Every structure is written in structure tokens, then in C-alpha cells.
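Working notes for the structural subgroup meeting. M.R. asked for a predicted model of this chain before we commit to crystallization trials. I am recording the input and output together here so anyone reviewing the notebook later can reproduce the run.

Input as submitted:
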Amino acid sequence: MPTPCGALDGIALFDSFTAAERAAVEAQGRVFEAPPGHVLMREGTEAQSLYVLLSGTVRVVRSDGVGGQVEVGFRQAGECFGEMALVDGGTRSASIIAATPVTVFELERDLFLSLISPSPDLLAKLLRELSRMIRDVSERVVREDLERRARQAESALARHRAITQAVTGLAHELNTPLGVCVTAASHLQDLAVMGMEDVREPTALLQSNLARAVELVEAFTAIAACQHTGPLDGLDAREVVEQAAALFLAQHPDCGLSITIPPGDPCPWLGHAAHLDRVVHHLLDNVRAHAYPTHIHPNGTGAGQVTIALDPTTLEGKRAWRITLRDSGGGIAAAHLPVLTDAFFTTARGRGHKGLGLAVVFNTVTGPMGGRLAIDSQPGQGTSVTIVLPQEL
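Returned structure, recorded in C-alpha cell form:
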């Protein structure tokens, strides 16, 4: 089919070409039509031509690595595909399939190079347009990646909010019947003391299991409590962290941890001390239980080294504090990182852990504290937990 006059007019890749230069390019190409389903380019094949879609729509399809195909986009009339073939002649990165009847202008690489090689001006124009197109594509990819990450983060927050609401309701409903059961068990214990030996053993069993249930409800209540909001206080975040760490060591004198907080300037922060105290407590408790589970030293100066650093940073363009808690313990398997903050996830259930500590941390940091939480770890290389908190909500 003869090339229609002005076929390349309005095509971004050739915008900087003069009418005469576009006409010279058109003369080197050909126009053809294809029905729906026709494969114009196949992924992995050698690139030989540039295509300009004059009418219709095509699908952009890539292999998923397991024999299937994933549709990654569409191209409409006026758009190019295969333009990188003009430069490098490499292999196709995707397949192009006609979604509707299409009319396509094809320009073979060798013919195009024979046209522009004698003209440095044409070559410069082409490279300039290709660079612009690559930059536009790169910016779009970055923007789409940021949007995808934002959607994933919002989805994770929504999932945690739903779990928090369910756990809060469950704790509320269990409080009264548990209280009744604890009272009844205490009464049975009194009867056992008074001589009813037959009920002594089952009563002890009942009391121990009720104590576990009460402890679990208290953990549920802690998840609900981390959503509490109220008037904000002007605080020094560094001082709050130092006091929280000191309190943890006082409450757990046999924990075997040595906690270092490098000195620095005050960190003015408008927030709730109880929230940050809770976060530090759960993180240190997590280190004690999982990073150094066998390093128990009565004098508290064992191999369980922990460092908590506070540094200025920004969050969404606003001033913030970055709190980084690092240990050099056993580390975390890569498969566990995505689910660490899920409620009830734990690798130590056999040692009595419920898997709620990091859920409380996540809900507190991303909820009333308005911050972000990230966990980085590799087996055998310790763990780093980074919290970014806005200096003012």
C-alpha cells in the first residue's frame, strides 16, 4: 500500500523534522493493514523496524516467566512502538498484537539509517526525540511505581484497621464472661482448700488457662489502646526514648540487653509520650525474645547489643524524626518480613509468644502517631527497625 501523504504529521517522534524531512522518511517506509489478533511484534525477536500506528488500537503483552502472558498496556493511533530498534537493533521487550483492525506505517531500520547517516542534523533530531520519549516513559514508570506503593500501603493500613476493630470488639465481648469465670475459679479454689480434694487439680488447670485467656485479652486491649488520641504534648523525643529504654531495663533486669542511645541535641516533638513509650517497649521486648533468645545474662551486660539512634529527616515534605533501633542478633528470614506486623504472626508460639507486639507497634506508629515503619533484616546479620515520625501532626 502506498504511504499516504503526511502520514507522519503529528507523530511525536518526528515533530522536530521539517515537512520535507518527514516526506523523505515516509518515502522509505510502507503502510499495511492487519486484522485483530495479528502479531505485529513478538517479544524476544530481533528488532528490525519502527512502527507508527495510523489507525486502530494494539495491545502490549509481556511474558510472565511461567509460560503465560500479561497485558501491560495499549497503544492508540498516533503512537509509535519499536522506536528503540532505530538505535540499537536489539531484541523486542514485548509483543504487540492488534486489538482492532489497524493501519500501520513500518520503517525498516536499515532504510532509515541509510537516510539519516549522511545528515548529522537529522540524527541529532532523532536522538533528541528518543531521549525525550525515554525520559517521559521513565517518569511515568516512577510515578506508577509510587502510586502502586501508595495503594499497597493504604491496603495494608486498611487491613490492620479492620483487624484492630475486630480485636477491640472481641476483647470487649470477652471481658465480662472472663471476669465471671475467674471469679468462679477462685471460688472453686477456696472450696479445694477447704477439703474438696477432687476439685483441686481441675481448678488449678482452669485457673492457669483462664490466666492465659486474660493475658491475651489484655494484649487485645493494648492494640485498641494504641488508637487513643487526645491533646498533644510538647516533648523531647530523645528523652522519651531514653526513659522508655531505662524503664524496660528496670522491668526486665535479666533480659541480657545492653542498650546504647548515642547522645545528641534535643528532639522537639509534639505527640503522646505513652505511644512512643509503648512502641519502644514492644520493640525491645521483641529483640529480647527473638534477636537474642539464648543470651540471658543476670547482670544485664551480655552480648545482646541494641542501639537506638534519633536523627532529623522529612516525611511527606514535613520535618520529622527518624528513630532507628538496631540489633546484631539472629536476623529475620526474608519470607517473614512482609508479614511481621500481622496480628498473631510469630515464629515462637511454642515459647508462649502471641504475635501481637509488632502489630501494636505498626498500629501505633501508622495510626495516632501519623508515622511510617520499615523493617530491614537478613538472617545472621541483625535487624534494623526504622520509624519516621512527623515532628508535628
